Automatic annotation (TrEMBL):
Any Pfam family the entry gives: A24_N_bact
Compartments it resides in: Cell membrane
Protein name as annotated: Leader peptidase (Prepilin peptidase) / N-methyltransferase
Organism: Actinoplanes philippinensis
Membrane topology: Multi-pass membrane protein
Ranges that cross the membrane: 6-25, 103-122, 128-147, 159-177, 197-218, 230-253
Family statement drawn from the similarity comment of this UniProt entry: Belongs to the peptidase A24 family.
Main location: membrane
Keywords: Cell membrane, Membrane, Methyltransferase, Transferase, Transmembrane, Transmembrane helix
Amino acid sequence: MPETPLFGIVALLGLAIGSFLNVVIHRVPDNKSLVHPGSRCPRCENPIRARHNVPVLGWLMLRGRCADCGEPISVRYPLVEAGTAALFVAVAARFGWSWELPAYLYLAAVAIALTMIDFDRMRLPNKIVIPSYGVAAVLLTPVSILAGDPEALLRAAGAALALYLLYRFLAIFGLGGGDVKLAPLLGFYLGWLGWDAVVVGAFAGFVIGGLPAIALLISRKVQLKSKIPFGPSMLAGALLAVFAGTPLATWYLEQLQLPPV
C-alpha cells in the first residue's frame, strides 16, 4: 500500500496529539484535570476560541498573542505541535503500514511530553510513565502473536529488566528515581526491536546526556552537585535506536572488525 497517504494521516494526527500534549505538559505536573477547565488565557482568563485552537494555524492567526488582552503566547506551543507531527511522520517512515506503528507513535508522543516536563520541572511524572507500561504491552503483544514471534515479547521483557537493573545500580550514584522508572519502558520498546537497539539506545542516552553536561561543567554554568534532567537524553537515545539501532550497531562492530551479533 502506498505510504504517501499514511504520512498525511499521521501528520494530521501528530498536530492534534501535539495540541493535546501541550495540555499534558502544562497540567499533569500540577495534578490538574486534562479536561476541565478548557484552554484559557492565563492573564485575562478568557476561554480560547475554537478557531484559535487549531494546531499551529491558531497561533499564527493570533500572531502569538491572546485575542482579548494581547498577552504573548509562547512559541513553544506551535513548536510542540509541529514537532509531534514531524516525529510522527518519521515514525511512519520507519514502520510503514504495520501493526507495530501505533505502539511507536505512542512512544514518540510520550517522549515529547516527558522531555518537556523534565526540562521544565525536573520530573518524569508517574501518571505518564506507569500507564505507558500497560499501553506498550497491549499494543505490542497482539503484534507478536499475529506475527508468530513470541520471542520478541520475551526479548522485550528481558531488555526491560536489564535496563531496570542497570539504572537501579546507577541510582546509587545519584541518578533520579524517575529515570529508573523510565528505563524499563524504553527497554521494552527497544528490546522488541532487537538487542542491538537496546545497546545503541542505552549507550546513546549516556553520550547525549554526558556531552552537554561536560560542556556545562567546563563553562562553569553548573557544578558537580547541580541537577541536570537526564530523561530527555534517555528518550533521545531510545528514539535514535528506533530509527537507526541496527545500522549503528553494525557499523560499530565493523570498526572493531567483529562479526555482527
